[in-house]
Amino acid sequence: MKKILIANRGEIAVRIMKTAKKMGIQTVAVFSTADRNAPHVKMADEAVCIGEAPSSQSYLLGDKILEVAKQLGVDGIHPGYGFLSENAQFANKCEQNNITFIGPNSHAIEVMGNKLAAKETVKAYDIPMVPGLDEAITDIDKAKQVAAQIGFPILIKAAAGGGGKGMRIVENEKEFESQMQRAISEATNAFGDGSVFIEKYIGAPRHIEIQVLADKHGNIVHLFERECSIQRRHQKVVEEAPSAVLTPEIRQKMGAAAVQVAASCDYVGAGTVEFLLDENKNFYFLEMNTRLQVEHPVTEWITGLDLVEMQIRIADGEVLPFKQEDLKIQGHAMELRVYAEDPLNDFLPSVGHLDTYILPVGEGIRVDNGIEQGMDVPIYYDPMLAKLITYGKTREEAIQVMRQAIQNYQVEGISTTLPFGQFVMEHPAFKSGDFDTNFVKKYYHAELLKEQYQEEAQIAAYVALQQYLDDQKQLRLPN
Ligand code: ADP
């Protein structure tokens, strides 16, 4: 591949371009009018404005992007994550136009893009699944019966779901219908598909996912796990690799299951198989994400691989250059998603002007960033500004480097999840490794952060007072 177009924006577009440049591949950026001065536009060899700020008028315009790709003689399109990355039709159109879609084939995207179709596909294999009704609810009485059999609470989920949308916990039979209607309307709004189904609600699960890589020649390996249990609104904020609780035996079993899931849909490229792990360390298949995952850097750090490079090589037809037994975990990596959100105000989006934006640097620190000081954070897109990733020989070291890096990350003008990240890194449950997806609900209150701020303000005031008194003493010294 000599030239690729990156059909994305922000940190992921920048990250993909870094690897392309390293591989000597020319890059084409596309951008909306809101992103005219964005780093991904400046970094690309060529850049084309494809429309107005709302993504439906720019980053989601597959045909327009294909037109640009053809005009500029592009060999491949990397979709990043979000936007067109899980759009089977777009993947198909790329191939029809003789442009390589850097991702899986459209069949795998289609099957795994629907949670029910995915369950149906992996059924033939020996993959443990969350108990439930593995079909869309059409008959409410039957659904209620199944719910009673499984036992409340249960979870109603959208078949087309993603980003934690269309998901409702049902505590008892009385709320069943009202919660179901809410899930249906949320799913219809978000995905244009209101099919919902039932799953047992696992009370205190950990979200653990396995990274897989598959080439076009039938070779599939897994690159171990990522722990993603620190979530708000069923969405990840802190991730790490490896998990603090997996034994080599469970890791091996989950890895083997993930490889089978990939095989079940003839997967090609980098993909992620998500599982829930219950308190007794039983694991259950949740879904497969058929794209590069936001949290891929933690896997890159513990395996020494560049996943974007692997994606491009695989798309180009190369054979995987290693076997499962060649892969080893080295050290520990942490990631904090730096969202433009206010952790003091229920993680609501915080938009505005970035007056100060200075990134931390140092050994064991990587920042995948998509924004610059002086820019306005646009309201049109996902509010993630950057990812702060740290590495250490041990988990403790990775946490320690993260604490320092958060302190040296300077942002003024908007609120971010950085202080929340500090809270997580300092929490005894997180430090001990004993936590699950209820961490935020169980331990986090905005008041705790406020107290921390007040304490810091008091210390700062005390230091300033000491300094003042010292200065006074010096000033009084006779010359
Ligand atoms: P989405 O595709 O919307 O991200 P997922 O199926 O990947 O939905 O689930 C997202 C998160 O929701 C999980 O990481 C977990 O925290 C929670 N979750 C999903 N299914 C269950 C379940 N059956 N029991 C308990 N929590 C669940």
Describe the structure.
With 479 residues, the protein is an alpha+beta fold. The protein folds into four domains: 3-102, Rossmann fold, CATH 3.40.50.20; 131-200, Dna Ligase, domain 1 (2-Layer Sandwich), CATH 3.30.1490; 206-447, ATP-grasp fold, B domain (D-amino Acid Aminotransferase, Chain A, domain 1), CATH 3.30.470; 449-479. Helices cover 37% and strands 24% of the residues. It is built from 16 helices and 21 strands. The strands form five sheets. An eight-stranded antiparallel β-sheet has the order 14-13-10-11-12-15-20-19, with helices on both faces. The protein has a five-stranded parallel β-sheet with strand order 3-2-1-4-5. A hairpin with a 5-residue loop joins strand 16 and strand 17 (348-349). Helix 4 (88-96) runs antiparallel to helix 5 and helix 12 (395-408) packs antiparallel against helix 13. The longest helix is centred in the C-terminal third of the chain and has 31 residues, at 446-476. It is globular. The termini are far apart.
